[in-house]
Structures are given as C-alpha cells and as structure tokens.
Amino acid sequence: MAASTMWFLSLCLLSISALADVHVKVTDNPADQLVDVLNSNRIAHKVSTLYDNAGLACIALQYIKAYQGDCGAVGGSDAKKPPESEFAQTFAPNCDVQVSSLTQITGRLLGCQTKYVKPSEAFSEILMKNQKSIDIVTDKNHTEVGAAVSGSDGGSPYFWCVLFSNGTTNSSFVFEGGEPKISRPGCFSGANDQCSGTYRSLTLHTWSYIVAILVTIGYATGL
C-alpha cells in the first residue's frame, strides 16, 4: 500500500513539474519571439536580420495603446492610424525615449483579433495579410525593428504591432535614462523582460490544475 501511495505521489509531482514548466514557457516575452520569427523569415528570403531596438519597440506598444482597444479600426474600410505628430508628442515621452533620437519609420505592421495566438501564428496569420506585408518584412532599407503585443486591459482583443526603421544602432530611439521604461499591459521586444500580463487566463488555468492535483494527493494520503 505504501509503495502504491509513493508511486501516486511521484506521478502527481511530475504532473505539477510539467505544468510549472508550461507556466514558465507562456510567460516568456511574445514580442521577442515575434522578432525572432520575423528575422527567420528575412533569412529565408536571403535578407539580413534586423537589430531589435527596445526604444522603437516601446513606441510600438504606445502605437497599440493609441487604438484604445478598438480592434475595428485596424484594417478594412474603417482602418485608422495615429497621427505622425503622436510619435514626438506622446509615444516618445511615454517611453522616456529622447525625441531628438527619433528616426524615420520605414514600415509598419499591425493586426488585431479577439483570440490570443502564438507569435509564430500571429506573424503568419494576422500580420502577413498580403504581398504588401511580405514586401514590408523583406525590405532591404530597414535596419531596426521593434515589436509589441498587448491585450486591452490585459485581455481581448489582442493587438500585434511591428515598427521598422532605418536608424543607426545605439543612436536611434535612445532612452533618457539608458534603460527601457517598462509599461503594462503589454510587452515590447528588446527589453530583456518577461511578460505575463497577456496570459493571465492561461496562468490561472494552469494553477487550477495544480490545486486540483494537490487536493487529490490529500485524499489519497488521508490528509
């Protein structure tokens, strides 16, 4: 009986370990993963990879927030985009990016949908809409990229944004204090930051399984 109980406990602990590993994986920064997918696509097209600029990426997150959760304003006949003046007046100050270091935006990709998907799926199914999108990704004039993902107040709808620039590494989109200014909800690439806000429901779902397993252990051992 004791051996059977020990086997059951070992199995439960392995299950908890596996679930914990899933939790770690889903809290990785999806914006960084999106840049990885994009650069892999450029390599496949025999184009050089782009520098992941955290300042440009933070501005991409501010670009998303300018839509105020209005998914209907992204694409289609009702498509809108923030005024160019917002980059200097709002986006850069909100990121602590020096306005004097702003460089030309040479391309933009923006997508939105109600369901969260993996970065690789977001790239292929949401951002790569047509030949124009492919041309933007593979444009040889780009030197830098910044990606961001955010849900409205941490939930649906989910916005994905990629901004491209022809700036010079380490001298464009420079932070006032030299460090990225992290803001939530949302994630942006290049900040060496893990982001779990987008995955709140997944995290809660995972821990509900762990609690259920612990309860089962309690019944099995007579606790």
Automatic annotation (TrEMBL):
UniProt keyword list: Signal
Signal peptide as annotated in the record: 1-20
Keyword Signal attached: yes
Highest taxon listed in the record's lineage: Eukaryota
Name used for this protein in its record: Ferredoxin-like protein
UniProt source species: Trapa natans
